[in-house]
């Protein structure tokens, strides 16, 4: 059963409040208007590189780091190097202020997780210059590269909003990764204290805001201001109950001026008032949007805040996602969708946010094992209940690896999925003898996975279940910043697999091959795969041909219908919108249930349902939830 309930807001299944041109309190772009607002328009020739985390040049905090972030920034800038410098902040809560002045040295500042690394301070814009100097002067001695910024703020009678930032970036090309930056000033009245100020270009960072307003653009003289695309806007639990957050307000820099924010193809959680999501300006001007049927979206008389928050990039309409959908693409209604929650699938398990800690074992030069399997074996032999971390140095590793059942929880990670590949050409049509000759060197008799290897080698033909590049039979494994690919491309129905998971509570990013993302084999389970808060996309060729598929049923010896539910996710136009599901692995035609009244677990229909998303190609032991992931269809079989 494959069904889709396509919604923007978790709380409702209607797009009625997003019909162009919208209302004066919430104007909505039509497709023609939205077409002008693309990343290329905003970035003007800049192609933002994917940030890559490399070993730190400088560290902050114990063990072995500078006492303050500013000291590390100063040390990096003093290298005067055009080569990017990496500053790692050890987990902890740092009550500090830091400024990055203009510099030719590109900087990446990163932690292990935004849940464990905090740069925080209580700094109100109402602070006097003298009090400000007493509070933060210790971070900016005369020799500091940022002393000039500090001195300028300290000279003011009242520092104001522009000097109340915890982190200020005046340098181009800065990257901020896995950090939380917060200003916990909570004075009564209109306290406009700021956590992060960016007075620079080409800066990349995750984004979160405080008690109310996410954006306050000061881009009145620019046709293009802020573009939010392919993102999730959410909030702390209190906002889900009160809906008192705001998407944006205009920043009045001394006079009424209208900056711009465009929000496209993103998911908005119900943390604000749907009918009136924009606040009055910083000087109290009432919000005034342009909802005229024919309008100039850059008319300076109106606030330039617009949305085209849609499921498909190609259009601003949800017309093809009305429940119950069609036989080729069934859509869940709100009542049906209510049963499919992370809690239903995870049955009491609360997946922790993966945290990257220093490696216990490494793979590749310098200083690592020659194969991933050797590192896995070494970690398992510790027999420790404490999680072990395996770091893979950048490179392309033509290897196969298996993780047998073990009590040792494992995290296998790299610096970027763009630089680390575990890859092999392994067809399911390979004979057991050829398989042994190809991969036996990775599994000597002493290997913890020798038994899995021997079982596959004993088969006349190894089949799909032994064609995996990486197999996981252990619970609780985490994969972060890796690409796992099987580049077998034999003619016919070659079902080679990059990653097989025969375990529970595994967390990984997800990408698939030339067509099908999911092939669930969960016929005996009420809950199979749940994809939530994710983006399903593909390589450029799929945007042109739309020949990808969201899913097919995995027929394990007989016709059986596994389950996939996709909720609150964004689907790029990489497949046929009207018929996004493929025939099963044995060629059975897809058969969805589009009856107005239906049992979504009816075994006669294919159980693929979507609630704004869909996807599968590995076999689950029980069931999985994929959250906040980027699921990609590429030309190779990749995970």
From TrEMBL:
SUPFAM superfamilies: Pectin lyase-like. The keyword Ribonucleoprotein does not apply. One of its GO terms (molecular function) is carboxylic ester hydrolase activity. It comes from Ceutorhynchus assimilis (cabbage seed weevil). InterPro entries: Pectin_lyas_fold, Pectin_lyase_fold/virulence. Residues 1-16 form the signal peptide. Keywords: Signal. The lineage of its organism: Eukaryota, Metazoa, Ecdysozoa, Arthropoda, Hexapoda. This is Pectinesterase.
